[in-house]
TrEMBL record:
CDD domains: SK. InterPro entries: P-loop_NTPase, Shikimate/glucono_kinase, Shikimate_kinase/TSH1. Mg(2+) binds at residue 19. ATP binds at residues 15-20, 128. Belongs to the shikimate kinase family. It comes from Pseudogemmatithrix spongiicola. Keywords: Amino-acid biosynthesis, Aromatic amino acid biosynthesis, ATP-binding, Cytoplasm, Kinase, Magnesium, Metal-binding, Nucleotide-binding, Transferase. It is an enzyme of class 2 (transferase). One of its GO terms (biological process) is aromatic amino acid family biosynthetic process. The keyword Lipoprotein does not apply. One of its GO terms (cellular component) is cytosol. Substrate binds at residues 43, 67, 89, 147. This is Shikimate kinase.
Length: 182
């Protein structure tokens, strides 16, 4: 059994793979006998609550309104346990919501280089308003420079540039079940 932590919280830049890896972590936990772990994607919850896509929220209501929704959704989700949470790339800057969510949680930083993140986002077709300008790589570098010190406060860091989603998930499951340490 995984003892104390109630949540496994994935943090990192857009393109790190938080939304992709989260459900795989739940599936692998289940296969390892850790049943009933759910997956929550904060960005998807925000879209459901707003009834709009994230690009629509940014375009019609602005970034401040998006952050307000993100904070509210994070607070709601932090009431649940036994969940894997994919956060948004900028969630780490919401100090109080972060502290609340990370109480009795394992935070895992999916560390991606801006170059790999930019390539993945472009292959996926965009959808990130903050990275959608003329120079996505430069924007990702800027965001990383501002946020990395916060991401690095996580208990664990996984460098994901050369790992498949399944490899990242098994690494996280091993960390959570105490089979490896970093
Ligand atoms: N380890 C990986 N190897 C190759 N491609 C990956 C990997 N992880 C994710 N991807 C791909 O990168 C793209 C972005 O992944 P994903 O949406 O999971 O990132 P994210 O961290 O959730 O980003 P955001 O913060 O914007 O929500 C997707 O197309 C996904 O399939
Ligand atoms: O890096 C960011 O600030 C963001 C990342 C995405 O996950 C979304 O939460 C949104 O596009 C903002
Ligand atoms: Mg995501």
């Amino acid at each position: 059994m995984i003892p104390a932590p109630e949540r496994i919280v994935l943090v990192g830049l857009s393109g790190a793979g938080k939304s992709t890896v989260g459900p795989l972590v739940c599936a692998q936990l289940d296969a390892a006998g850790e049943h009933d772990w759910g997956f929550v994607d904060l960005d998807a919850e925000i879209e459901a609550k707003a009834g709009r896509t994230i690009p629509e929220i940014f375009a019609r209501q602005g970034e401040a309104a998006f952050r307000k929704l993100e904070r509210a959704v994070s607070r709601e989700v932090a009431a649940s346990g036994r969940i894997v949470v994919a956060t948004g790339g900028g969630w780490i800057e919401l100090k109080d919501a972060v502290a609340e969510m990370l109480h009795r949680s394992i935070a895992v930083y999916l560390q991606v280089s801006p170059e790999v993140a930019a390539a993945r986002i472009s292959a996926q077709g965009g959808g990130r308003p903050l990275v959608g300008g003329p120079n996505p790589l430069e924007k990702l570098r800027e965001l990383l420079a501002r946020r990395e010190r916060l991401y690095l406060q996580s208990q664990h860091t996984v460098s994901v540039d050369s790992m498949s989603p399944d490899e990242v998930a098994s690494y996280i499951v091993a960390l959570a079940t105490g089979r490896t340490r970093n």
